Amino acid sequence: MKQYPRPLNKLINELSKLPGIGGKTAQRLAFHILSLTDQEAESLAASIVGAKKALHYCSVCGNLTDQDPCLI
């Protein structure tokens, strides 16, 4: 991998851990994220954290939901 500043390398490394995301795609995503406004980047980060905190699998059917049991 090219030598990038440490924060950029960390971002690329974390993105490349996502399924289906290789090194080049992770680099493209990282550079796209860096081109976002601060507000857009913070909104993206908040959406990820919010989804991680709010969503879980239904104890009855295994559907991804924000309430247990889910509506299905």
User: Number of DSSP helices?
Assistant: 3
The helix content, as a percent range, equals 55-70%
Share in β-strands: 5-15%
Structural class per helix/strand content? mainly alpha
Structure description:
The protein is built from three helices and two strands. By secondary structure, the protein is mainly alpha-helical. A two-stranded antiparallel ribbon has the order 1-2. A hairpin with a 6-residue loop joins strand 1 (56-57) and strand 2. Helix 1 crosses helix 2 (23-35). The radius of gyration is 16 Å and the shape is elongated.
Topology:
Blueprint: H1 6-15, H2 23-35, H3 38-54, E1 56-57, E2 64-65
Antiparallel strand pairs: 1-2
Helix pairs in contact: 1-2
Structure characteristics:
single chain, 72 residues, mainly alpha, two-stranded antiparallel ribbon, 3 helices, 56% helix, 6% strand, elongated
How would you summarize this macromolecular structure in one to three sentences?
The chain has 72 residues and is mainly α. The protein has 3 helices and 2 strands; from the N terminus they run H-H-H-E-E.
